[in-house]
Amino acid sequence: MLRFLFSAFLDCGKNLKFFEVAFIGRVLKARVSPGLLAYPPCEGEDVMRLADVLSENRIMTGLEAGEKKELLEKMVSRAASLDNAVEKDAVLKAILERERLGTTGIGHGVAIPHGRVKGLKEIMVFFGRSEKGVDFDSMDRMPVHLFFLIMAPENSTAAHLKVLASISRLLKNQDLRSKLMNANGRSEIYRAIVEAERWSGVF
What we know:
six-stranded mixed beta sheet, 7 helices, 16% strand
């Protein structure tokens, strides 16, 4: 438990606002209980739309790897090929440093690898799907199939946490997880995410 608390505070920076601490607390509680993704937003809590930071051309399918590092290398490489703003080495370093603090495989076949990157101008999210699944040292020790890769500027603590919260909240929905696994291509995946946000009341 202390390991995850330390990890979360390193992620969030030193000057945490109340809603940030509340969110971290819910994530920590979720990480040690079976109801991993079942925590609703706090009353009055801001929610950032995933559709604002994830576009259809940032969706990757057919990702296959033997283990976590290989998967992350492939995702970051493909992200760099899709968007010139992604500096491969800097992003990969930030993501791997974050993973060393504690796995971002949150269970139910989902992982949210993330890191803050010097020089990045805005938050960027990439989605990846592995049909076979990857050993990602997940909290429930099950293979991960769905990956949301978050890259954030160094000083974007609040926005970074809002994106994490939005993804966690959406992915608690088993129907959405099934749709993302069974969707045919990037358009269907993106549409499933947009529709899920609409039904959740984010729009």
